[in-house]
Amino acid sequence: MDELDFLKKDWQEREKELPKLSYNDIYMMMWKKSSSSVKWIFYISVIELTFGVLMGIFYHPSFEKELNLPPAYNYLTYASILVIIYFIIRFFRNYKRISTTSSVKGLLENIIKARRTVRQYIIFNLSFAGIVSIGSIIYLYIQQSGGWNSFAAQATPKDYLVIFVISVLATAIIIGFFLGIYYLLYGILMRKLKRNYNEIKKMEL
Predict the structure, then answer these.
(1) What's the DSSP call for residue 147?
(2) How far apart are CA 170 and CA 134, in angstroms?
(3) Arithmetic mean of pLDDT, 72-92
(4) Does 51 have pLDDT greater than 60?
(5) Which tens digits make up the pLDDT trace of 122-150?
(6) Cα torsion for 89, 92, 97, 100, to the nearest 10°?
(7) pTM for the structure as a whole
(8) Is the distance from CB of 80 to CB of 37 less than 8 angstroms?
(9) C-alpha 92: how far from its chain's center?
(10) Across the chain, where does the E strand assignment appear?
């Protein structure tokens, strides 16, 4: 007997000792894993909101008198908190749906809904960060130049180009930073949900 035949025989012997999982056993494993992933998505979003609220209470850019940010900045912050609360409620509902579903079709549909909600949440946060970043940089640059009237009276095409380049670069850095965080926090859980979805789909074939 050569080495390859020996390995095959050894593997076959080992395979006999492995527990045989039924369709229901595999389904329950996928169900528990999916439920756990969505639960952690809910927990992380709550922690994120709590951190944001605490930052707003103890420190907010509008507290800095030197920045002289407009009141609209505060309104945008409050609006973003309401939107995040809305998403947290959706995350919790997704978790409850997955944890109580009893059919394969229902589980597949709920996994799709959970992943879609997370994508929408990330897109909202990145879009909001980008809008606030661009608006704040342009506003502060003009304020440093003596206000809009003074800036408009003296600005050259080069000044407008400088504002554009600075705002784009700074926004790209900020969005890249948040994207990296979301990739670590939500990306891992999203990939687990995708794997679970694919495994369940295979079971249905």
Answers:
(1) S
(2) 8
(3) 85
(4) yes
(5) 899 888 888 888 888 888 888 777 777 77
(6) -140
(7) 0.74
(8) no
(9) 15
(10) none
